[in-house]
Amino acid sequence: MTLRTRTFAPARGRFLRGPAFSRRLHWIYLAFGLAFLAFVGAMALLERLGLPRTWIGFLFLVGPIVFYAGIGILSRTTDPTEYYVAGRRVPAFYNGMATGADWMSAASFIGMAGTLYLSGYGGLAYILGWTGGFCLVALLIAPYLRKFGQYTIPDFLAARYDGNLVRMLAAVAAIACSFLYVVAQIYGVGLITSRLTGVAFEVGVFFGLGGILVCSFLGGMRAVTWTQVAQYIVLLVAYLVPVAWLSIRQHATPLPQATYGYQLQKVIASEKRLLADPAEQRVIAIFQARAEADDARLADIPAALAAQRSVATRRIAELKAANAPQGDIQAAERELARLPRDADAARDEWTRARDADRERAQPLAGMPLHAQQFAGDPHGDAAARRAFDESRRNFIALVFCLMVGTASLPHVLTRFYTTSSVAQARASVGWSLLFIVLLYLTAPALAVLVKVEVFDTLVGTRFDQLPAWINNWAHVDGSLLQVSDVNGDGVLQLGEIKIGGDIVVLATPEIAGLPYVISGLVAAGGLAAALSTADGLLLTIANALSHDLWFRIVDPKASATRRVTVSKVLLLMVALGAAYVTAQKPGDILLLVSAAFSIAASAFFPALVLGVFWKRANRWGAAAGMVGGLGLTLYYTLVNQPGVRELLGITSPVQLWWGIQPIAAGLFGVPFGFALLVAVSLLTPPPSRAAREMVDEVRLP
Amino acid sequence: MPILDAPVAADPRRAARARHWRRTQRLTAALLLAWFVVGFVVTWFARDLDFPFFGWPFSFWVAAQGGVVVFVVLIAVYARRMARNDRLLADETHAAGAPDPRR
């Protein structure tokens, strides 16, 4: 422990740098990795000795957070360079790990394999987009940011575009997209905590908040960097171990990433079998009939409602007349009370029921063929051709938005300020992507392995012989997993399983037949992913507020210590604000995350790239490009997103441009931002000499 | 603006910097082209590139693994080539009698 204390000692005297620093870090994190494995081993032992599950879950939440808190406290600092950019001496390798953890959020850890399970090839847009974006970071942004060498993204844009107008726009955009993203992360933390320990969601949120604050409050970027490295190790182990085990259980190699092509062949064969299976078709026909019945009820709501009421009333009367047990009568009365109160309520309820039934009346439970690229058929009839074209266009558009968004998220880009040189920044992007790819190559494999398990083992099992994990999870949360014997044959069909994407990662240990301790490990990994991303985001928001808005614009004479203190106070306030918003459970998490990507892409990407590669770009062009691009993206998202439309009461018909879904709104915002930036720059005077000299300067190594 | 607009040939150090930037631009453009082909062109023709590849349909494999690996390689190539480009700049400016920019 003395080793660690010395390395993370507060900002006094000289710091280790270069190879000696790297060597010391290797030892520290090797020790951390071993300590973590010992912790998991101890938990496994305790489980064997009969420690109840709730306790194991609780220890898996608290144990790692105590570790992180230790690092956070040892990294406390009041020195601005330490606080904002970790002293600019993070070796490329470790910055890569920290960026990996910073980047991989709860959505990557828990959500992605589920998305791939549910949408097959369509989900690969996330894999391609979220990795390809790092090429843009490496080639167009990171080395130049590092050469510039200040503290925040608005710093860079303000220096390049002559002043505070662009700084203010950039700070506001950085705050907006990071805030949306951090709410999604804290939501993930709350979800994992409440699942694992059974506390209320809101309690889980504030518990997670404590975990986030101990990492970032005292030490800023310095503490965040070194906890993120630890969190990366935790999340990687937690992701890979259960998948390798599941693969071995399916008589394949422990490296499913290299060999799951053969399991994919199995899935394709099973899809054919299930599509032709008469029992599956019966299930589909039943849901079809239910949807039609709902349609009939919806055609004449008052009559249908009256009919249902009279049936229920008559039944109560009959029961009473027959002197039935009191329990039966009460059940029937409850049935009557549960009927929709009026016609409007009935319309809502029955429309929902009809949509749900229609959704389930699809072949393969609504999932596309796993390996089929895009929907529809380019050689089919007109409708199939249109479906194919739109599906392909949307896939490409989503890949584009995710890539450009990745290259514009301020919390990721700031990480490249922390390396010791431009060359280290370049190498560090490579390490980042390598560390991210370890998980991203595994997620599609996991999706296929779970599909093999469901299609070949689970489907066709008798209901009284279902594995225990099914009932456990169905009991925990009905939105994750529901099974019911729809066609009454006592055998489980694929159409009778209703599955939520998140279950794929959460239940993998149990599907693989691993002890509960591994489930705890997976939860700790998900928590690490969410906490590390939330740390980076909160720091970005607090720094945009304290450094860019307060220090640079309001009070430029503030002393270094005062700046750091203000930053810490703001961090605390932002964190509480974000937790408060999260506790309100704002609707759609995926919407929040995708909105953050499109906002970042259209606000930052044109200004960042042209700032380096086109000297003529000036402040008016940059301001116009940022406002215009962002405006178009927001407009397209707001008028077309179903949830938002409902909220704002927009009733005009959805007007999609070329059929592009609002999740890929950046496809329009980014080019529009580029065009405006160029046009307005050319119409206004060239940038100042200082700005042009800065461009020359950042282009040099 | 005499410094900025002076003829490049007049100052060998500036000429070396200009060459460094041109090499950077060429490398960036070449790698971006590769990035675009893997990320978008192959994806556009995914339905046609459906031949089996170690069990995967080829375009499925590219989107799930091949493309991702190519992206890592592109960044690694960029880091190496740029390190060489930087060394070249240092040698050229040094030869021009300027202090070593590596400091």
- How many domains make up the 3D coordinates of chain B? 1
Give the strand order, joined by hyphens, for the main sheet of chain A: 1-2
- Unreliable runs of chain B, pLDDT <50, ≥5 residues? 1-6
User: Measured on Cα atoms, how large is the radius of gyration of chain B?
Assistant: 21 Å
Strand content of chain A: under 5%
Oligomeric state of the chains present here: heterodimer
Explained architecture:
The complex is a heterodimer of chains A (701) and B (103). With 701 residues, chain A is mainly α. Chain A has a domain at 278-366. Helices cover 75% and strands 1% of the residues of chain A. Chain A contains 29 helices and two strands. Chain A has a two-stranded antiparallel ribbon. The longest helix of chain A is centred in the last third of the chain and has 39 residues, at 516-554. The radius of gyration of chain A is 27 Å and the shape is globular. Mean pLDDT of chain A is 83; it is low at 1-13. Chain B is mainly α. Helix content of chain B is 73%, strand content 4%. In chain B, β1 and β2 (56-57) form a beta hairpin. In chain B, strands 1-2 form a two-stranded antiparallel sheet. The relative contact order of chain B is 0.14. In chain B, α2 (12-44) runs antiparallel to α3 (58-95). The longest helix of chain B has 38 residues, at 58-95. Chain B has one domain.
